[in-house]
Every structure is written in C-alpha cells, then in structure tokens.
Amino acid sequence: MYGKCVQYSFAKLYCTVSVLTSPAGLFLPLQRVVMDVQEEATFGKPRFVCLLLGFAREQDGCHSLPDTPGTLKNKTAERPDMQASMAGWGSGLLGVLIFSGSLPATRVALSGFNPMFLTSARAVVAALLGIALLLVLRQARPERRDVISLLIVAAGVVVGFPLLTALALQHVTAAHSIVFIGLLPLATALFGMLRGMERPKPLFWVFSCTGSAAVGAYALSQGADLSLKGDLLMLAAVIVCGFGYAEGGALSRRLGGWQVISWALALSLPVMGTLALLTWPDSLTGIEMPAWVGLGYVSIFSMLVGFIFWYRGLAIGGIAGVGQLQLLQPFFGLMLASLLLHEPVSSTMLLVTTLVVGCVAGAKRFA
Predict the structure, then answer these.
(1) pTM
(2) Rg of the Cα trace of the chain?
(3) Most buried among 81, 84, 121, 286, by the most CB within 10 A?
(4) Integer Cα distance of 158 and 160 in angstroms
(5) Which has more pLDDT, 153 or 212?
C-alpha cells in the first residue's frame, strides 16, 4: 500500500512537470523526471530509484541503473528517431544556456581569486558533488578502456579550458573572449569526426563555417582591445575544449552524460585538490560576495550541471550537429556581460544573432 501511494505521488509530480514544460518543445529533457519504485530481490524491500532527465535510458548508455521492465526500456525502443533528436537538441540548448554564463562569472570571480585557485577550486567543488552522485546512485566503475578517454575529458574541460580562459581574462574583457566561443562548434565537429566517427554532409560544413565567420566578423566589428597573449590563450582554450567535448560526447553513448563528467572530475580531484591547497588565498575575509557567487556558479553550473545536459545532448543528437548550438553561446554570453558587467555590446548583435540562428538551423538539417 505504501509503495502504491509513493508511486501515485511521483506520478502526479511527473505529470505536473510535463504540463509546465510541454509548451516549450526545446525543454523536452525537463519532462524526463521519473520516480520509480522497484522491488529489490536481494533485500526484499522497495528501493527508490531516481531517473533524472532520462539518464538511465539506453541512448545515454547508463545501463547500471535498472529500468522497470516493460516501461522505460520499451518506451526507449519505441521512441522515433526524430523525438530522440529533439531531446538531444533540447538538452544541448540547456547546456549552452548554462555555459553562456561561464565567462562572465569567471570574470567576476577573478576579482577575488587568482586564476590558479579559481580553476582548482571550481573543479574540487564539482568533483565532490559528482562523486556524491556516483555513490548515491551506485554507479559501477568505468572499464579500463574508458580511463584514457576520461583523462582526455578531464584535461580538456576540467583543467584546460577553465585555466586557459581564466588566464586570458586577465588580458581581455569577457565580451571579447566570448566571441572565441564561436569557433567551438568547428573544433567540436572536427574532433567529432575523428573521435565520434561522424560524417556530416558537405552543406553542414558550409553552414558551420558561415556561422563561425559571422561570429568572427562580429568580433572584429566591435573594435575591442586586442591582446595577442589573451587571444592565443582563448584559441588554445577552444582547441582543448572542443577535444574534450567530442571525447566526452562519444563516451557518453556508453557511460551516460552525467557519469562521464562525474568520473572525469573524480580522476582530476587529487591534482586539483593539491593545487587548490597550494594556491589557497592568504585571507578569505576580504573577498567580496560577487566573487563568491562567481565561484559558486562556475563550480556547480559550469563544471557539472551544464555538462549533464551538454553531454546527453551530444550523445543523443550527434556531436557535430548539436555542437553547432555553441554558435549561440557568444550572444547569450554577450547579453549577460552587458547586463551584469555593464560591458558595451554593439547594436549589430541582433542581426548577427539572426544569421547565426539560421546557420545553426541549416547545420542541424544537414548534420
């Protein structure tokens, strides 16, 4: 009787979430909140399993969380490819929206922390949360063949991109650095061909290059202060991040999106924890609240939550195709930089954004 009541409550919760989110088709992943009660044969008592955002679905590669026979597994098998693709693009868009605040938040956090401590601290906080998820949800350890890929993900998105962007932001503004993110879709697609064995159609590259060129032209039109050192650091950040995205997206098909970033963070914890201790600030009392908020955002959202959506999107919708959503990230980020940091943004942004949206749509069509 107790189990049925719980199931009923969870069913009402799922229906409520579905009703609230169904008008926005792009937010389809938010409807994948399912609470199920399963009988544990070993212990002979109910066990609660939270399948958040469809993580236990077969397309996520998360086979270590059990499915209810005849429900989730069958629904996954019957779901059309188009719906799966839209779910992937919806997850990817949520990830991009979260990532858009990363550079402005990093810029704010640098007002109170040095780049080395900021890079290590955000990884440590996210790693502790990721490890907690792995333990609570009883995830099996990755196979030996997955360790190298997880190390690549850690080097690219846990260490490389945060550190390089933090160093770059000491020489350029957040608005200037954000435009380099427009190169990420190309980098992700190229590495996706190598690591994900994807072969987009020729017109895909036309739309992708056009979108990147539009972002680059917009950057030049802003007349922002140029810094060779800052630009080279941002370019290096884009390369290592694209590699980490592609590797993580390919691995997510086997392990699951949130599992990949959680294991990558766990592997990096010894190094990043040591670095955090070595670069610990002399005093924490003089650090203002905005810097703490920035650190909290990049630790929880940029380093963990964003990747949960992003890697799931890459795994389901395709690395090269969903990766083109990153073309929108500079403009989301520029709006945040303008609103939060009061940095100037050109009025031509809307026109370029419209062009970029068209390029994203075209790339999706021919991915």
Answers:
(1) 0.68
(2) 21
(3) 121
(4) 6
(5) 153
